[in-house]
Amino acid sequence: xxxxxxxxxxIDPLITCRLCLAEFPRNEMYKLHGCQCLYCRDCxxxxxxxxxSQGNVLAITCPDAMCVEHGLIDSDEIKAIVEKDAxxxxxxxxxxxxxxxxxxxxxxxxxxxxTICEVxxxxxxxxxxxxxxxxxxxxxxCSVCQTKWHDNQTCDEFMKHGRxxxxxxxxxxxxxxxxxxxxxxxxxxERNDGCAQMMCQRxxxxxxxxxxxxxxxxxxxxxxxxxPCKNKxxxxxxxxxxxxxxxxGIFACFGVVLLVASPFLLLAAPCILCCKCKACDDxxxxxxx
Length: 289
Fold this sequence. Notes:
Main location: cytoplasm
Catalytic activity: [E2 ubiquitin-conjugating enzyme]-S-ubiquitinyl-L-cysteine + [acceptor protein]-L-lysine = [E2 ubiquitin-conjugating enzyme]-L-cysteine + [acceptor protein]-N(6)-ubiquitinyl-L-lysine
Mean pLDDT: 80
Subcellular location: Cytoplasm; Mitochondrion membrane
Keywords: Apoptosis, Cytoplasm, Membrane, Metal-binding, Mitochondrion, Repeat, Transferase, Transmembrane, Transmembrane helix, Ubl conjugation, Ubl conjugation pathway, Zinc, Zinc-finger
């Protein structure tokens, strides 16, 4: 006679991994902690290993683009899945990027030092260069260009006159330059042609290529309707209108859904409250013996 465990395994349905499309028993699937999505263990390991190798370590999410929760995969979960070498690389790259994007921290540029130094940004503008002294080696350096501190000189002036190689990408804006620095994290970005709305791949900051103004909150691209950047977006007027129509349509649909759902939520609220109150009343810890 077959045991109960073998019978339960026989009737358990197979689950399809949405990455490799193969079928596995439930006990061979891995459930992500953040969103409860199921994948086979090999696919999760491969997904994390490839993502880490590409440097996308600041926020690793569920591999399913349609996942409603967009569950984050934290460091402890990654450590339990990937190989030791991959996890060490993940920790190192993650720390590097966190420090590079933090206006209050910077790595000491002295060769062989790499100490994390505290930066005190100037009042009102965190992007302005300030002197930073390394607590370990004592080097005084610039928080922006990561070179020896240049008092009474801009970063570009020091790069041109204070260094012998005279090589470097400007930190100040030059409208016709083909390579500029992200105004937030200062990473070099090259633009060959096309749209003037740029997004930094390191920090995801959205800005105008010509004047470096922030476009993070400019969903309708109104920045290119007036001022010195008027009509410089790089798209036809029809495509801009179509983009704005789509954005407005998304917000309108969301508003309609809320409007339709609100009466049902109001009707369901008393039932939900009653169920919770009843559950509290039925709690065995509250029963007096």
